[in-house]
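Let us practice reading a record.
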Amino acid sequence: MRIAIPMADGRLAQHFGHCEEFALVDVDGGSPAKLSITVAPAPPHEPGRLPAMLKELGVQTVIAGGIGSRAMALFAESGIQVIAGAPALDAEAVARCFLEGSLVTGDNACSH
């Protein structure tokens, strides 16, 4: 399983389209104990570009703070699950909470 987490200043970015980089979390067998994290730079913001890029990188799930409805629709079309409203934690904490079923999400921080 591969999870993408948009990052800014070392934490989950609250605005998906303006993140600095993506933490790509590879999970061996779905176990939170077996995580490896690599970082991929985010390309310049361009609507529709990120879903295609993350699909090419083998991402199955995106965990975001705020993400627009158009981006969510494009991810859905690509078969990528999106979880919105996640807190601004570091990538490892976000991934572990998600895998353990304890990730608390709130409102999608993006209104467009």
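A brief commentary: The beta strands are 2-8, 11-12, 21-27, 35-41, 61-63, 81-83.
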